[in-house]
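Before drawing any conclusions, I needed to go through one protein's amino acid sequence and its backbone structure tokens, quoted below without any editing.
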Amino acid sequence: MDDRRPGRTGTPRPGGRGRGHPTQNGRGNVSTREESVLARVALTWLAEPGTRSVHRLVDEFGPVATLDLLLDGGAPQEALRESVAARSRAGDARSVAAEALARSDRLAARVVIPGDEDWPATVEELRTLHLSDAHRRVDLETAPPLCFWVRGPWPLAEALERSVAVVGARAATPYGIHIATSLGYGLADRDWTVVSGGAFGIDAAAHRGALNANGRTVAVLACGVDRPYPMGNAALFDRIADTGLLVSEWPPGAEPLRPRFLIRNRVIAAGTRGTVLVEASARSGATQTTRRAIALNRPAMVVPGPVTSAMSVGAHEMLREQPAVRLVTGLDQVLEEVGRIGELAPVPRGPDRPTDLLDDDARAIVEAMPRRGTVDVEALAARAGLAVRTVLRKLSTLEELALVVRRDDGYFLAARPARSRPSD
């Protein structure tokens, strides 16, 4: 979404594609990109990201005019007016935003806004995200971001263009850690960006897998990009900032409040081509990310776990409840869901057997052969339930395949091919 709006007063100009470029503020006044960024940062501080009423105002009036309107007490909803008033008592929104931007410069972090070349267009699809049976605020306020803070060398849009989210339980099992690490490595090795939330467990394993493959990984945070959370992953965040991206909707210094983890999940779902849920307990927040991917018509995938594991209960329920969810067991199946048409995973099959190419009659003869000793043709025909002439014809083929050997007193097996089970 660009800060300009064609058809309104004033001449539409190119959106903020660099510092100092003019943008339309919605009331016919032209504002610089710096003013637009400052207003968006202030709006993000006044109301939590995803607030639909704020996003609608920015759509209609532009960020600068919307900030003026809210600070003048002109918010259309009472809840928003109260939120703005409460935050304003803690400080001046523009001053807070200016300090956040100064802090960003010191961190070598950048702010990306709609209209920038770096802006990931896919997050704009959050405009259409409406969750069924939504009652909680976090399920209702799912508008696109107003801005992103980004740390790392990659352009954000480029990093997310070919990306997959790998999410799951914090209290992951060794099985889940193995799967997430393997998927992270495999995706990165195939030049896909691995996106997750930087948490303990599945998130960290997916990030590390990608880093081990010298690939790209993006951590979408629920706090400032300068505030690693959990602290135990601080070294991991440093590695991601060096070779991938740390991304957040909250300014530097922002605390990792519990609701913010659920707010940021919509960005993980919208910014990627698909979401893989590796492990999730009955109340895991990772299932929420998967539900948002489903609502956005993104591929949603679940890796099954042991039916005895509490860490797979939520994942298995997702498979039971959501027809759109696909069960995946490895990298090839994930790529089949998110890749180009024709990128199909190989069909799993067991090891080849000498009898795989035999027809039904020849198979019946092999199965009827005694495991030890020889058998004459008439006895073999009776055991196989076939005519003698059919058995003679098939035995010639089996001899050529070196599966049976003829002696003066009958035939015996040259090898011991595994007997087929009735279900084969």
User: Anything to note?
Assistant: The mean pLDDT is 89.
